[in-house]
Amino acid sequence: MHGHHESWFTALLNQFLAGPANAVYQMVGKTPQDPAHPFPDWLATEIFCMLVIMALAAIVRASLSMDRPGTLQHLFESIYGFVKEQAHDVIGHGSSKFVGYSATVFLFIVVMNLIGLVPAFESPTMFPWVPLGLAICTFLYYNFWGFKVQGVLGYLKHFAGPMWWLAWFMFPLEIISHLIRPMSLTIRLYANMLAGEQVTVGFLALVPFLVPVAVMGLHTFVSLLQAFIFMLLTMAYVGGAIEHEEH
């Protein structure tokens, strides 16, 4: 837990990949605030979390065993089983094809939330662009499956409501409701993580012994809870998008 500064991984990226990063900025018509340091800390930490998850998955894949599964394999299998059970409860029939995305979102958010407890790192989810990116991905994901499962007309009818004579009122209302979802997902994750970070930093400054341990435990619980809520809402949105076809 700490103030704003450049972590060692951010410094590493800015030292060796500043050129390619600036080229990407130019491609989208943007100019970084500091061309010598185009990677902000939150983006570098997000990339680091992604690399950590990929490395762990590669290790598990290389050491898969039916007879003597290792600790990491047990952990990943437990997470997968938990997500699969939740998907079945929330989405219902045919939920297995949505487990991969849901588990990835859950793991990614958990790691990004918890990395703030590691010295020299800040949780990327306490910066609004990260939750917003995840929320947009979820928005595109469930709408894609809605169109794929129900067809264009079938999915658009989904917005019209159950009674045709109220379609003129329900359709714009449903569209607005769906467009608000990414912002709702963003604010929920961002606000909770930012508040948790500030509370923990405050307690560390006031009481440097014993009490912060309990606060950090609370921060861990909130981190897991927020990842679970984000995953659960993703499943609920998918379930709602495909429900007419499934039932």
Briefly say what this structure is.
With 247 residues, the protein is mostly helical.
Outline: globular
Number of helices: 8
Biggest sheet record: none
Radius of gyration over C-alpha positions, nearest whole angstrom = 21 Å
Query: Into how many domains do the coordinates divide?
Result: 2
Low-confidence stretches: none
What is the structural class?
Answer: mainly alpha
- The helix/strand series, from N terminus to C terminus, equals HHHHHHHH
Estimated helix fraction: over 70%
Terminus-to-terminus distance:
48 Å
- Strand content is under 5%
Number of strands: 0
Global mean pLDDT: 89
Descriptive account of the structure:
The chain has about 250 residues and is mainly α. The protein folds into two domains: about 1-40, no CATH class; about 50-245. The chain is about 75% helix and about 0% strand. It contains eight helices and no strands. It has helices at about 10-15, 20-25, 40-60, 70-90, 100-115, 130-160, 165-205, 210-245. Helix 5 (about 100-115) runs antiparallel to helix 8, helix 6 packs antiparallel against helix 7 and helix 7 (about 165-205) runs antiparallel to helix 8 (about 210-245). It is globular and about 60 Å long. The chain starts with 7 loop residues before the first helix and ends with a helix. The mean pLDDT is about 90.
